[in-house]
Amino acid sequence: MQHTADDQTSAQLLGMFCFSLILNGFGNGMTVAMNLGSALWTSSAVNLSHAFDVSLLTILLIEGVAVVLFNAAVLGHLDWRRIAGNFIYMIPFSFLVSGFADLIKMTPLVTLPLVIRVALDLIGIMCIGCATSIYQRINVVLHPNDDFMQIIRFKFLHGNAAIAQPVSFLPPILIDILCVSFTHQIYAINIGTLFFSGCPRGRDRVC
User: Fold this and answer.
1) Do 56 and 101 contact (CB within 8 A), yes or no?
2) Which of 28, 33, 166, 191 has its CA 20 to 30 A from that of 118?
3) How far apart are the first and last CA of the chain?
4) What value does the mean pLDDT take over residues 82-92?
């Protein structure tokens, strides 16, 4: 039985998509476990989970649904295909992040010297950047948070990724500030967050 070029291309795209999804989940899970700085949306989920004493998985799912609804409001209509794609990525991603975080927390990695843990955290951030670059280039489905950045980039900012990226970070930053003011504790914000914030993450850039 012969496979067509289209079949091979589809299989390759699916393989790349699954790889990027797992890599993204692992990178985020690593940064959560190290607690030395996560991606901004992830840090907001971590701080919300501590503020409301709810599991990280639950918060990631709720936050994802909230962003899907907000994106639809910004667009002014319900794009069901787009929404389905958001959920296709967001649901397994949420399980992977919380699963990897819980798994890594049970290993000796979290007790290693600070310098090594910082290095592991930064490796996690690089995994996030690379995974995001891969799946945005595939351009099949997007996580709601990344879709939010693309929506404001093209709807309001004339395709300017340099401006859209920091603007898209304003909601998680606000969430973090509110959570810290409530709990008087700060989680998942550290050197890794600064490193993440300096990584370009548009479709035309690779972290």
Assistant:
1) yes
2) 166
3) 40
4) 95
